Amino acid sequence: MTDRRFEVIILERYCKGCGLCVAFCEHGKLVIDPRPNKRGVQAAVVQPDVECTGCLRCTAVCPDAAVEVFRIGRRTGKADASATK
């Protein structure tokens, strides 16, 4: 398991593939999947090997609240929703 500080989750049911989160992520953590999902949308996906700094720009610009960022708990390695909300 890597030592990441933040976890990014894309809520696929809300993502319409507008690309705003991708454009505002300075680290390239998010990209648009070239393959359409079950709804026919080329949604944003998370790049697992890219570090998230927790800047929350992606959550701020998403018009559909389809992006969530969580701080990873130091002891458990599990996401802690209260840390960034």
List keywords for this structure.
single chain, 85 residues, alpha+beta, Alpha-Beta Plaits, three-stranded antiparallel beta sheet, two-stranded antiparallel sheet, 2 helices
What would you say this structure looks like, in words?
This protein has 85 residues and is an alpha+beta fold. It has one domain (6-73): Alpha-Beta Plaits (2-Layer Sandwich). The chain is built from 2 helices and 5 strands, in the order βαββαββ. Strand 4 and strand 5 (79-80) form a beta hairpin. The protein is globular, with a radius of gyration of 13 Å. The two termini are 25 Å apart. The mean pLDDT is 87.
Summarize the structure.
The protein has 85 residues and is of the alpha+beta class. It has two helices and five strands.
In CATH terms, what is the fold-level topology? Alpha-Beta Plaits
Structural class comes to: alpha+beta
CATH architecture assignment name = 2-Layer Sandwich
Order of helices and strands: EHEEHEE
Largest sheet: 3 strands, antiparallel
Question: How are the SSEs ordered, and which strands pair?
Answer:
Layout: E1 6-10, H1 20-24, E2 30-32, E3 44-46, H2 57-61, E4 67-72, E5 79-80
Antiparallel strand pairs: 1-4, 2-3, 4-5
